[in-house]
Amino acid sequence: MSRVCELSGKAPMTGNTVSHANNKSRRRFLPNLNDVTLISDVLGQSFKLRISAAALRTVDHRGGLDAFLAKAKDDELSVKARAIKKEIEKAQATAA
Hints:
Layout: E1 13-18, E2 24-29, E3 33-40, E4 45-52, H1 53-62, H2 65-71, H3 79-95
Antiparallel strand pairs: 1-2, 3-4
Organism: Cereibacter sphaeroides (strain ATCC 17023 / DSM 158 / JCM 6121 / CCUG 31486 / LMG 2827 / NBRC 12203 / NCIMB 8253 / ATH 2.4.1.)
GO biological process, one term: translation
Protein name: Large ribosomal subunit protein bL28
């Protein structure tokens, strides 16, 4: 399982651990990923995703999974999230 957020595309970064004596050693900064279940209002279905805490706050701020995916760029989304977005768009098109 890769350490990449399925909604925002956040991935590990590299940098230095700097000691008090200014010694530098390489380290990785990992994203704060959580396994969550999000519910689509349009589809009435739940989806399990591995997303960062920041992405979870953004989903909540935008008003749910459907609203988040409507604004999200496809290149930042995982394959699974893109499929969910396509399903939601299809369901909204048939409902309209």
